[in-house]
């Protein structure tokens, strides 16, 4: 037997968030743990590796034998979390900061892919290790600094480090977020090979569209309790429900707020790129790019991992220092000395995986949303009552009012990203740049977000939306810009 949980309750601090979990994982079984956002999926994975507190019941690992010490368990059980935290990658001598990925000079001296994998035991003459790198497409990135990797490339790096350790039980939390279709297929093929060739037990958690063939069983959680466990099947619970009447009423309230607060952009073009190229050393990220976005247009930005989507958004949002020397026009003005970055950000709502990675202020959830009013990581005193009220309405619309006053660090990955999504929209910006905003969301939550954007973004608002899943784009999106690798 691999895992035996009996009447297990676990949580954070003094609050139990998992209740009465009874679960058996047998050899040759491979599981997926599913559930809505906040159901307890990541918490269960963290409990298995000792990262959360067991309050009642027991959790045993019979395959490790009677006497299990910390080192034995750590070697046999490996957890990979795909929350894109930068803290995993920095060295003691180097400090990281937001926007640094886009500054070629400040990034010098940081860990390369080779350096990072070496800390996990990479042996470059080891055929199996090289096979892992080739499977994940990291062999061609071996000398690239980790901070310059795309979000999807970063997830491949995390997985590679885990596989090099050759664990017996591999836990993957949200493995598919940030991966394009080709990378998801590669990941699934890799997991199937691991299951069949290396005798590794695999447990996935999160949301998915296509799973590896090896997945044989499913554990479904609802509000911290098991609602189903057994052979894998598509449950009726996976069907997306229509918005409730309460949600529809909240949508009307939010749309009225947007109409009241909106102000037309006094600009002919929102963004204009005239033959823009971005290079880091000998590597070209964007090559002779031409793009014009006018007020009120709604775009989807597409491209494979590493195509330069996030780099492009960094130019538009004012985070990339190369914009000063490039033909980049923001609101009819060429980016350059004397142009205030804060004047640019004031008119833009923004969220991205990188923003999540560097948002380390442990504010209450509502305070994180309010920080969007100042485009900083902090909250200034005196948030206007109307924005306090609309924040409460947003939490009610998404059905997460219980998290309004909970510290950001105690929220699940999906709820954290929802809070950052609300941070982007709270100030009613005329322009929204949303870089994979629905990573870690279940389908019900994605539907609610799409409905919100479609309802409140009328013809005055401009939207640029990045995703690897076309169905995530709001119905109001009607133009496409594709970047080729």
Walk me through what this model shows.
The structure is a single chain. The chain is α/β, with parallel strands linked by helices. It folds into 2 domains: 236 residues, Rossmann fold (3-Layer(aba) Sandwich); 238 residues, P-loop containing nucleotide triphosphate hydrolases (Rossmann fold). 30% of the residues lie in helices and 23% in strands. It contains 14 helices and 18 strands. The strands form 4 sheets. Strands 5-6-7-3-8-9 form a 6-stranded mixed beta sheet, with helices on both faces. A 5-stranded parallel beta sheet has the order 15-16-17-12-18, sandwiched between helices. A 4-stranded antiparallel beta sheet has the order 11-10-13-14. The longest helix has 17 residues.
Residue fraction in strands: 15-25%
**Fourth-tier CATH superfamily name of the largest domain:** P-loop containing nucleotide triphosphate hydrolases
Instruction: Figure out the total of helices.
Output: 14
Rough shape?
Answer: globular
What tags apply to this protein structure?
18 strands, globular, 485 residues, alpha/beta, Rossmann fold
Question: Quick gist of this model?
Answer:
With 485 residues, the chain is α/β, with parallel strands linked by helices.
Protein topology:
Blueprint: E1 3-12, E2 15-25, E3 31-35, H1 41-48, E4 53-60, H2 70-76, E5 77-81, H3 113-118, H4 127-135, H5 151-164, E6 169-173, H6 181-197, E7 201-205, E8 217-222, E9 225-231, H7 245-261, E10 271-280, E11 283-293, E12 298-302, H8 309-317, E13 328-330, E14 333-334, H9 341-345, E15 348-351, H10 353-358, H11 365-370, H12 385-397, H13 413-425, E16 431-435, H14 443-456, E17 462-466, E18 479-482
Parallel strand pairs: 3-7, 3-8, 5-6, 6-7, 12-17, 12-18, 15-16, 16-17
Antiparallel strand pairs: 1-2, 1-4, 8-9, 10-11, 10-13, 13-14
Helix pairs in contact: 7-12, 7-14
